[in-house]
Write a structure and sequence with these properties.
By secondary structure, the chain is mostly helical. It has five helices and no strands.
Length: 177
């Protein structure tokens, strides 16, 4: 089961964004060559580039959230003592879960409804084009729920709430390395 999740994680966070970036970039170059070198622009290239860009952007955001490299404002957060940081972490994760849960059903309905219409040139159903949005929402819900589970049930310190003694010990260890 764990290997299945790891494979799915690699596919969603590494392989698919890489493939779509390659498609986007190569189609973009092909579009430039066909228009300016050969004087014969192709109609499908713009559509492929935009669709691939959407997939790269959303799956890239998915990856950033998974590795905790997304934009966060920690200036104020870092000023608080460890107990307050932990409470802020828990409240923040609960708010994310509530918000993304509220987003899920309308997004699902949009994607489901979008299968009715297709893109103008390639006739790709818009539901397939918008599918990474659902993947992102589901990923955030699962990842955030698991982070809360780790913090509250397993006792892992994901909130970064460390006492002054722990910080001093880490600084000492870093100076000896």
């Amino acid at each position: 089961m764990k290997k299945t999740f790891q494979l799915l994680d690699k596919i969603l966070n590494i392989y698919l964004p890489g493939i779509f970036f390659f498609i986007m970039f190569s189609t973009f170059i092909f579009q430039i060559l066909s228009r300016y070198i050969f004087g014969s622009p192709v109609t499908w290239a713009y559509e492929v580039t935009v669709i691939a860009y959407l997939w790269v952007a959303v799956l890239g955001a998915n990856y950033a959230y998974n590795v905790n490299e997304h934009v966060s404002f920690s200036i104020v957060y870092d000023l608080f003592p460890p107990k307050v940081k932990k409470i802020m972490f828990i409240i923040g994760k609960v708010l994310i879960i509530v918000t993304f849960t509220m987003f899920f059903l309308p997004s699902y309905e949009l994607v489901k409804f979008s299968f009715i219409r297709s893109s103008s040139v390639l006739r790709i159903p818009f539901g397939i084009i918008y599918l990474p949005i659902l993947v992102f929402i589901l990923n955030v819900l699962v990842k955030t729920s698991y982070m809360l589970y780790e913090e509250l049930i397993l006792g892992k310190n994901l909130s970064g709430a460390k006492s002054k003694e722990e910080k001093l010990k880490e600084e000492e260890e870093e100076t000896w390395i």
